[in-house]
Amino acid sequence: MNFLFHILAVIGIYCILSWGYALVFRLAGMLSLAYGCYFAIGAYVYALGVRHLPFFPLLLIGVASATAFGMVEAVLSWRLKGDFLFVGSLALQAVVYSLALNWVDIGQPPGSWSNLTNGAFGLPGLPRPAIFGITLDTESGYLALVAIVVIIGFCVYRNLVFSPWGRIVEMSRDDELAAATLGKSPRSLRVGVLLVAAGFGALGGMLYAAQTGFVDPDVAVLSQVIAILAMVATADLLGSRSPVVGAAVLIALPEALRFARLSSTYAANVQVLAYGLLLIGVAHVSRTRSARTVRPHEANDR
Amino acid sequence: MVFEDVSCRVNPGQLILLRGANASGKTTLLNILTGHLLADKGQITLNGVLKRTNVDFQASSWVSPRSTPEGFARAGISRSWQEIRLFPNHTIVDNVAAAAQNQSGERLLSALFLRGQVRESESENQAQSRALLSEVGMVGLAQRTPRTLSLGESKRVAIVRAIHAGAKVLFLDEPLAGLDVDGVHDVLTLILDLVRNQGLSVVIVEHLFHIPRLLPLADTVWTLARGKLAVQSPSAVQEELLHVTPGIIDWLGMLTKRGYLYSSEPLPNGAVIHIARRDPSAATVLDIQGLCLARDGASLLGDPLFPARTGISLSLRQGDIALIEAPNGWGKTTLLETLAGMVPNLTGSIRLDGRSMGQFSAWDRSCAGMSLLRSAGASFPTLTTGEVFRLANTPLPDRLLPISHQKVGELSGGQQQLVNLLRLLLSRRARVRLLDEPLNMLDPAATNIAEELLLADPLACTLLAIPASVRFTTEFQADNQTDLQGKTDIL
C-alpha cells in the first residue's frame, strides 16, 4: 500500500511539473530546457532550508527564488526566439548543473556558504516537512500534502489557461505579429509565462526533495526536463488536453515493468526506450498535425 | 535610402489611397507608420481624444516601447495584412474579443486572483464583440473558426477586430486583393461605413486593378515615387488616368488583331473560361477530361460518380492562352495545383502531350513541362535573383541584372512577383504554364512585360486563373510615362 501511495505522490509531483511546462511548451509554444533549473532550485532550497524554517514560508521562498531565476530566462526570451531560445536555455541548464556540482568545499560543513551544495555527494538525510507540528512521516500523510498542492496547482493552471490571458498567449504563439498589432506585447506575455512556470517548477522540486530526502546535482540533469517534455508531449499524443495523462503513463509504465519480472537494470533501459519511442511518436503526430493546419493564404481559394 | 523627407497628415474620417509603382516603398511606408519598422529620422504625432502620443525616431538608439507595433496599436494605429492573419485556433468571436485593450483578464495577477472580476469583464467583452459582429451582419459566424470563412468574410472580421482594438487610423494593405465581385462589394461597404459614420481614418494600399474603383471614394491620394510622397486630389489623379489600357480579358479579346481566335465558354459552378487560340490546327498540349476537384477530402467541384457531365473538360493547343475567371471558393487554386500534382486527383484524366499524368508526381510533372506559379509562397526568400534563375535553368533577363545579387526575400512584393513570373515565362522547359493570379501586385510597366512574354513562346500554352469579374485595368500617367519607362529598366 505504501508503495502505491509513493507512486501516486510521484505522479502528483510530476503533474505539477507538467502543468508548469505545458504553459511554456504548449500554451506559449516555447521549447525551453531551463525548466530543470527551477526544479533544481526548488529542491536545493528545500534541502538547505528545511531544518531552519517551517514548511509554508519555505515553500514561498523556494517559489520566489525560482521566479527570480526565471527572470534570467525571461531576459533571454526578450531577445531570443525558437531555436535560439532553445540553445540559450540549454546553456542556463548547464550553468545550474555545474553550479550544483561544483559549489563544494570538502572541508566545510554541507549547506554552509562555501560548501552550499556539497557537490556530487549531495545533501542527504533531509527530514519530511512538518505542518502545524505534525511531521508527515508516513506515505499517506505525505500523499495528502501532495494532493493539496496538486489541487491548488490545478486551479492555478486552469484559471490561467482558460482566462483571457491564456487566450492571448496562445494567439501570440500562433501569430505574434497579429497579436502585437492588437496592442499586446508578445514579449511581456512570454516573460509572464516563464515566471509562472518557474513557480510550478520550484513547487515540484521542493516536493520531490521532501519525498526522496536527498538532493544531489542529478536534479538538474537534462533528462529531467526531457522526461517532463515527454509527459506533456505524451498527453498530446494520447489526444488529452491535460498533461496529467502523460505524467501518469510515464511514471506508471516503468513501475508496471517491475511486476513484469524484469530486472531493474532492464527496467531502466526500457524506460528510456519508452521515452524515446514516445518522443518519436509525438514528433510524427505533431508534424502531420502541423502539415494539416491550413495557413491563412492557402485557405483563401477554398 | 528609401524615403527622403516624407510628410503626410491624416484627418479623422478620411479615406486615403496610397499608390506607387513596384518597389516605390508602399509597404515600407506602411511598416514605418504602424511601428513595424523604425525610421532613421522624423516624428509621428497622434492626437487622440484624451492624449497626444508622439514618437520621435531621432531621439536615441534606445527603442521606446511606444515605437513598437503594440505601442502604436495602443495609441490607436492599426493595420491589416495582405494575408489575413486571423488567429486560426480560436473562434471568430474570440478573435474579436481578444483585441480589446486593458482587459483585466489579460493581466497575470488578475487572471489568477480576481476570478469574479475577470469573468464579468470577459462576458461584457464577449457581448461587445458580438454586437460589433452583428453590426456588420456577421454574428452568425461568431462560433466558427477562421478557416471556415470565405476570403471576404475573413477580411471583414480582420477589420472589425482592428476596430475593437481601438483603431482610430487603420492602414489596409490590399484589402481587395483576391476578392471576387461580391467580396469587393462587402469589404468596401464596411470600410465606407466606418469612415463616413464612425470617423475612422483609413489608408488603403492597393495595386492598380482596384484604383479606378477606389478613386471616387477617396478623399486624398498619396503617390509615392522616387522616395517622395506627393499628396494629390482624387480628381487630379482621375485626369491623369488618360489612357486606360484594357483589362486582361479584353486584352485576350484584342489578340484577334494579331490573328488569334477568341472564344469563351462556361465552366461548371459559375466560372468562365476565355481562350485566345493562335492556331486551331496546332498540336494539343494539355487535355483534361472529367476532372473533379477535391481538397482535404472535401469535394469542391464535380460529382465523382458522373465526372464526364459534372467535371471540368478542356483541351489547350500550342500557343493557346486561356483564362479561368471564377468566384472565390470555386477551386481555382485547387485546379491549378491538381494539374501540377500538388493535390491528388482521384477522378478524371490529365494528359500532357498525349501522356497521362495520373501516376506522375509533382516533380515528374514539372520535368515533363507542367509549370505552376502559385499566388502566394512562390518565392525562395533566401536565394538571390540570379540563383533562382540558375535553379530554374533559365537565362537571367537583362532587366533583372541590377537585382541579380539581391536576395528575393529583400525585394518588394511586386518585384518578387515579377521575378517569379519571368522565371516561369522564360523557362525553356515549360509546356503548360499555370499561373494563379499572376498580375497581382504588378505595376503597369511590369504588366506589359508579362503580357508580351505570354505571347512569346509559340510552343507552350498558358492557363491563368483570376477571381470572377475583377477586371484588370492598367493605368498610365500621361506626364510620367517616360518615368515609368525608366522604372522598367530598374525592374
> How is the largest sheet of chain A built, in terms of strand order?
1-2
Termini separation of chain B comes to: 18 Å
> What is the number of independent domains of chain A?
1
Shape of chain B: globular
**Strand order in the largest sheet of chain B:** 4-5-6-1-7-8
Tell me the number of strands of chain B. 22
In terms of structural class, how would the helical and strand content of chain B be classed? alpha/beta
Number of strands of chain A: 2
- Strand percentage of chain A lies at under 5%
Percent range for helical residues of chain A? over 70%
Q: Poorly predicted ranges of chain B (pLDDT <50, ≥5 residues)?
A: 470-491
What percentage of the residues of chain B does DSSP assign to strands (E)?
15-25%
Distance N to C terminus of chain A: 59 Å
The assigned structural class of chain A equals: mainly alpha
**Main sheet: strands, sense, barrel of chain B:** 6 strands, mixed
Q: Which segments of chain A are poorly predicted (pLDDT under 50) over 5 or more consecutive residues? A: 287-302
Key structural traits:
heterodimer; A: 302 residues; mainly alpha; two-stranded antiparallel sheet; 12 helices; globular; disordered C terminus; B: 491 residues; alpha/beta; 6-stranded mixed β-sheet; 22 strands
Description:
The complex is a heterodimer of chains A (302) and B (491). Chain A is mainly alpha-helical. In chain A, 73% of the residues lie in helices and 1% in strands. In chain A, a hairpin with a 2-residue loop joins strand 1 (130-131) and strand 2. With 491 residues, chain B is of the alpha/beta class. Chain B contains 17 helices and 22 strands. Chain B has helices at residues 26-33, 69-75, 92-97, 108-113, 115-135, 151-164, 181-198, 211-214, 234-240, 248-254, 307-310, 332-340, 362-368, 385-391, 413-425, 444-456, 481-490, and strands at 15-20, 43-47, 52-56, 77-79, 169-173, 201-205, 220-225, 228-232, 243-245, 261-267, 271-277, 284-291, 293-295, 298-301, 312-317, 321-326, 349-352, 355-356, 370-373, 432-436, 461-467, 474-476. Chain B has a six-stranded mixed β-sheet with strand order 4-5-6-1-7-8, sandwiched between helices. Chain B has a six-stranded mixed β-sheet with strand order 10-11-16-21-20-19, with helices on both faces. In chain B, a hairpin with a 2-residue loop joins strand 13 and strand 14. In chain B, helix 6 packs parallel to helix 7 (181-198). Chain B is globular and about 75 Å long. At the A-B interface, helix 5, helix 6, helix 7, helix 8 and helix 12 of A face helix 2, helix 4, helix 5, helix 6 and helix 12 of B.
